[in-house]
């Protein structure tokens, strides 16, 4: 009989005995949903490989590559991006927002694979019963649905459940990709094709970085990590629908291929000897799979190869970020990581193509070496060798090339559809265990270097190298057994010829099929292959040049690195700000050494203004992973374009347009309330925010450059317009100043409430003479009282500057039940601050402030009885330890009542520009009586006391009180006295009483100094009380 066979007689033709004949007919008869005659027709037209035209086959392969590989590649892109969204969510704040405690992030990484582990085998068996392309498309669609659902998670439990479900639906991915590849490509072609779609894993790494960078720049209502889940999930679901329309279920149903092309597509697959696609589960094959030791070797391979993968896929962003990069730069540095992975995979495919046949295990072992070298370098390199360690970390990606080639070992060395499904499932079963275990090697307390995690990667890689050699010798042993089996069959007459057609499309396992040979490297070519591989120029570049570059990056010392750190910091302290920034940019070591001192100096306390540019800078700092940790004190300066007094002719200057643009921007910002939202966004991301403040001045205390701390953006405005915004309204406070300050005060309160921030201190320091917050600035509207109350309750320190604006009819009492108290908002505000330990109240002027009603209420004891209907209850302030009062005129009785109310806890008292006014002033006319000695004699129990620029109200004027100079000294009296030692307090009070001197208007005084005019009072600001610069 010749090679040509009549298709009609194919089923009944005698070959290797009746058993084989019956099995061929039986298995072909069970091809799912397809007439088996097309397989018979294919073998009839192409009875052997020599009958296949190489040109036609090459054209067919190219067409298959165009139609299949992009589809599988995009699937794998989503497959990887889907798994790593949690990694990017980590750097976008999911751990802080949910919040996740201790090892909960590691558990989220692992729980994904619990779902995978549970559903891997059932999912593979279901796929055998279903059209594979449609089943894969459905699962990909569900990836996206579950990913979008994760965006709505608000706690660990919800996210954990969704992660388990996601893992279950993703369990089918790799087995499906491998099965589809084996349906259309020969064993020799499979490694390069698997590499082609697996390379999209690297594209997923790079694309994930780009996606993360883009999402990180979204300034929306949701947190960035929620956008990550929504956007990636939506794209994934859309792709699942597209895939269902484009991916074929079998060669027979592949649209776009002619009948002749389908015959050639089928015939060329006889070389695989792995059977055809079946929809029937063969339980005997499943039993054989579990009894085959090679199945468990693949399971162990899946485990050790995914111990590195589980850690890198979930912690790579945290490792890179730990090298000193911010969030957005970390996402960008994922791009070269992905590109390098693609290079490794392509290089492995090229090596596999040009190496001797069946040398995959050797190539897998060789490509493990860069990973091992990278892990060793990362562990052993100095912690400040950032470039070298980053390169080492990139090198660890070469293990993926080995894993890609190892996947083709399954499709090439496993026969029988059901057995192949089980073995494919088992390698991913092992992969699940590896991915579950891996995150727990990355201990939170070892961040950001994770030595145990990198160490686990190193150990797993070494074991994997050994395992590849185990596979090599196992396959050699199996091939010897196969050759012995064929010899025995030929000797018994059961195998008269070696026609591959007899077993090409029978659903026989690799053990059952006598024509099956395992793909391994022949013994006589192993050393030749090794030499040829290492002699390859591209591999030499990797194995020689890159280690040299790493050594150079890690070992080449610089002059800066040789300077002792203490000396380096001391030298840098003398530099101007521009020179300091230049020094930081010279090298990574300089940046690392100076960063902490630089951040503490320039970013622990910053002042901003209510402009879009300035507030955006605050947001940017709060989003900076490292700088946000340092910013603990945020000040809002009262720089404003509004209602300023501009110089004549300013409208004709070059800066007029810039000024008008700034004015319009400020009006838009404030009228829309956007300033409040921007402040809330920034406060939300400042983990160590301790103090917020409001100021109408630029702070001194900038030692470097001997300058001031201006509001961010104010200096630029001066340069562009020539206008200093804080000076626009003149030296004295105006109504416009007070209203703008009240608006800013309200915005800060609102933002703190919306952000959930709970600072310990709130400071309102207004130094312009006659400036202060009006009482109505303290009014808390009902709609944001629930969010603001927790903020006020958490405050330990409140510093206020108040303009009381008293009524002309103020009678100085606080007992009228029908009275409307103008200070009601301030009273209510303080009622929300029960935990204060430090309270400072400065009024706007000691000459014009007599807030008698408020001070009477503040000193009202906590007693039961009828309460005033239009006044809040008295406040206890049971934790108050420090009280500062300044810039007011007050009755000594009322002031003593306030002090004595808090005497059980009060340890520190400051009185600055306090003028005592006797309640019987009309009876004191003509009498020269100082009331301060009597007042001071009633003070006791203090550890700290400060009095400065105090005074007394005389019948016709305010007069300052001085203190005698020590014996032997001459000059003006002292106006400030301080005692900070508790043991000296009694003597200090005695000296104050004896040394207090009133300069009487008639000139009867203890010295010849001129009395002080009213202007001198106004010339003194409250700076002495504002000890925080």
**CATH class value of the largest domain:** Mainly Alpha
Give me the count of strands.
15
Helix content: 40-55%
CATH fold description of the largest domain: Growth Hormone, Chain: A
Number of helices: 41
* Uncertain runs: 1-36, 521-557, 806-812, 1003-1029
The largest pleated sheet is described as: 13 strands, mixed
**CATH homologous superfamily label of the largest domain:** MFS general substrate transporter like domains
What is the terminal separation in angstroms?
105 Å
CATH architecture of the largest domain: Up-down Bundle
Mean pLDDT, to the nearest integer, reads 76
Identify the overall geometry: elongated
Compute the number of structural domains: 4
Radius of gyration: 41 Å
What is the strand content?
Answer: 5-15%
- Class by SSE composition: alpha/beta
How does the SSE layout of this entry go?
Blueprint: H1 18-28, H2 37-45, H3 54-91, H4 94-97, H5 104-129, H6 132-150, H7 156-170, H8 173-184, H9 190-198, H10 200-216, H11 224-246, H12 259-267, H13 283-291, H14 293-321, H15 327-354, H16 360-366, H17 369-380, H18 386-395, H19 399-413, H20 417-437, H21 451-492, H22 501-504, H23 526-534, H24 537-555, H25 559-562, H26 565-572, H27 577-584, H28 588-603, E1 605-609, H29 612-623, H30 627-630, E2 633-637, H31 656-672, H32 674-684, E3 691-695, E4 699-702, E5 707-709, H33 714-721, H34 735-755, E6 761-765, H35 785-794, E7 797-802, H36 824-831, E8 838-843, H37 852-859, E9 882-890, H38 892-901, E10 908-916, H39 932-936, E11 944-948, E12 951-953, E13 958-963, E14 976-979, H40 985-995, E15 996-998, H41 1014-1019
Parallel strand pairs: 1-2, 2-3, 3-6, 6-7, 7-8, 8-9, 9-10, 10-11, 10-12
Antiparallel strand pairs: 4-5, 11-14, 12-13, 13-15
Helix pairs in contact: 2-12, 3-9, 3-10, 3-11, 3-14, 5-7, 5-20, 6-7, 6-11, 8-19, 8-20, 9-15, 9-19, 10-11, 10-15, 13-20, 14-15, 14-19, 14-20, 14-21, 15-19, 16-19, 16-21, 17-18, 17-21, 18-24, 29-32, 32-34, 34-35, 37-38
């Amino acid at each position: 009989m010749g090679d040509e066979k009549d298709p009609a007689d194919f089923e009944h033709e005698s070959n290797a005995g009746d058993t084989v004949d019956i099995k061929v007919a039986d298995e072909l008869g069970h091809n799912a949903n397809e007439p088996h005659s097309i397989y018979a027709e294919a073998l009839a037209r192409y009875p052997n490989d020599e009958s296949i035209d190489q040109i036609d086959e090459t054209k067919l392969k190219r067409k298959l590559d165009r139609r299949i590989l992009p589809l599988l590649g995009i699937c794998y892109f989503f497959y990887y991006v889907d798994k790593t969204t949690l990694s990017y969510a980590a750097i976008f704040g999911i751990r802080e927002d949910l919040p996740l405690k201790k090892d909960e992030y590691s558990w989220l990484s692992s729980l994904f694979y619990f779902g995978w582990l549970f559903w891997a085998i059932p999912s593979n068996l279901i796929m055998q019963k279903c059209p594979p392309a449609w089943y894969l498309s459905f699962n990909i669609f569900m990836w996206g649905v579950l990913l979008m659902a994760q965006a709505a998670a608000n706690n660990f439990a919800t996210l954990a459940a969704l992660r388990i479900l996601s893992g279950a639906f993703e369990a089918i991915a790799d087995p499906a990709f491998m099965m589809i590849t084996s349906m259309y490509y020969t064993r020799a072609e499979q490694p390069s094709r698997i590499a082609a779609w697996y390379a999209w894993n690297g594209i997923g790494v790079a694309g994930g970085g780009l996606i993360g960078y883009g999402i990180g720049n979204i300034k929306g209502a949701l947190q960035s990590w929620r956008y990550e889940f929504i956007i990636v999930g939506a794209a994934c679901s859309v792709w699942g629908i597209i895939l269902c329309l484009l991916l074929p279920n079998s060669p027979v149903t592949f649209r776009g291929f002619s009948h002749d092309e389908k015959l050639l597509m089928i015939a060329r697959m006889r070389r695989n000897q792995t059977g055809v696609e079946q929809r029937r589960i063969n339980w005997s094959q499943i039993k054989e799979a579990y009894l085959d030791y090679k199945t468990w070797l693949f399971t162990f391979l899946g485990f050790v190869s995914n111990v590195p993968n589980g850690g890198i896929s979930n912690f790579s962003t945290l490792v890179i970020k730990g090298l000193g990069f911010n969030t957005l730069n970390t996402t960008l540095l994922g791009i070269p990581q992905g590109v390098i992975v693609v290079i490794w995979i392509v290089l492995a495919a090229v090596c596999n193509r040009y190496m001797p046949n069946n040398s995959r295990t050797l190539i897998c072992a060789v490509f493990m070496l860069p990973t091992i070298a990278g892990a060793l370098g990362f562990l052993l390199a100095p912690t400040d060798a950032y470039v070298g360690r980053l390169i080492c970390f990139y090198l660890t990606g070469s293990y993926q090339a080995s894993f890609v080639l190892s996947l083709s070992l399954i499709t090439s060395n496993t026969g029988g559809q059901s057995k192949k499904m089980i073995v494919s499932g088992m390698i991913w079963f092992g992969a699940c265990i590896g991915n579950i275990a891996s995150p727990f090697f990355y201990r939170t307390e070892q961040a950001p270097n994770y030595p145990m995690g990198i160490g686990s990667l190193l150990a797993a890689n070494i074991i994997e190298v050994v395992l590849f050699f185990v596979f090599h010798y196992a396959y050699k042993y199996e091939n010897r057994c196969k050759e012995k089996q064929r010899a025995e069959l030929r000797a018994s007459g059961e195998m008269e010829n070696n026609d591959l057609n007899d077993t090409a499309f029978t659903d026989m396992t690799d053990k059952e099929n006598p024509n099956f040979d395992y793909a391994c490297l022949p013994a006589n070519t192993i050393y030749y292959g090794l030499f040829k591989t290492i002699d390859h120029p591209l591999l030499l570049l990797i194995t020689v040049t890159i280690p040299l570059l790493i050594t150079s990056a890690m070992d080449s010392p610089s002059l800066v690195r040789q300077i002792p750190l203490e000396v380096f910091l001391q030298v840098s302290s003398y530099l101007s700000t521009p020179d300091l920034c230049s020094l930081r940019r010279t090298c990574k070591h300089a940046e690392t050494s100076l960063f902490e001192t630089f951040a503490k100096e320039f970013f622990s306390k910053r002042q901003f203004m209510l402009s879009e540019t300035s507030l955006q800078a605050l947001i940017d700092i709060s989003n900076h992973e490292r700088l946000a940790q340092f910013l603990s004190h945020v000040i809002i300066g009262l720089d404003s374009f509004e209602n300023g007094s501009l110089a004549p002719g300013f409208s004709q200057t070059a800066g007029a347009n810039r000024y008008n643009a700034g004015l319009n921007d400020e009006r838009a910002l404030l009228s829309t309330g956007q300033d409040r939202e921007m402040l809330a966004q920034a406060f939300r991301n400042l983990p160590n925010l301790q103090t917020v403040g409001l100021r109408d001045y630029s702070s001194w205390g900038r030692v470097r450059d001997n300058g001031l701390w201006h509001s961010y953006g104010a200096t630029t405005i001066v340069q562009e317009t020539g206008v200093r915004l804080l000076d626009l309204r003149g030296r004295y406070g105006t109504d416009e100043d007070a209203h703008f300050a009240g608006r800013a005060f309200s915005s800060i309160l609102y933002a703190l409430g919306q952000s959930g921030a709970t600072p310990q201190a709130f400071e309102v320091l207004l130094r312009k003479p006659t400036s202060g917050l009006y009482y109505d600035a303290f009014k808390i509207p009902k709609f944001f009282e629930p969010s603001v109350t927790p903020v006020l309750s958490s405050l330990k320190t409140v510093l206020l500057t108040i303009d009381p604006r008293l009524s002309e009819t103020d009678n100085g009492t606080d007992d009228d039940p029908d009275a409307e108290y103008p200070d009601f908002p301030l009273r209510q505000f303080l009622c929300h601050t029960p935990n204060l330990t430090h309270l400072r109240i400065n009024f706007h002027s000691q000459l014009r402030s007599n807030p008698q009603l408020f001070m009477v209420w503040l000193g009202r004891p906590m007693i039961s009885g009828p309460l005033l209907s239009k006044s809040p209850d008295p406040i206890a302030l049971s934790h108050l330890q420090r009280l500062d009062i300044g810039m007011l005129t007050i009755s000594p009785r009322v002031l003593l009542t306030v002090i004595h109310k808090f005497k059980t806890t009060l340890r520190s008292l400051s009185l600055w520009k306090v003028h005592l006014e006797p309640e019987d002033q009309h009876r004191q006319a003509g009498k020269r009586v100082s009331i301060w000695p009597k007042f001071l004699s009633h003070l006791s129990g203090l550890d700290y006391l400060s009095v400065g620029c105090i005074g007394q109200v005389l019948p016709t004027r305010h007069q300052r009180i001085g203190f005698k100079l020590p014996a032997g000294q001459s000059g003006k009296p002292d106006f400030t006295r301080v005692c900070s030692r508790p043991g000296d307090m009694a003597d200090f009070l005695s000296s104050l009483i004896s040394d207090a001197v009133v300069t009487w208007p008639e000139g009867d005084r203890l010295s010849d100094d001129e009395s002080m005019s009213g202007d001198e009072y106004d010339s003194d600001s409250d700076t002495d009380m504002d000890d925080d610069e």
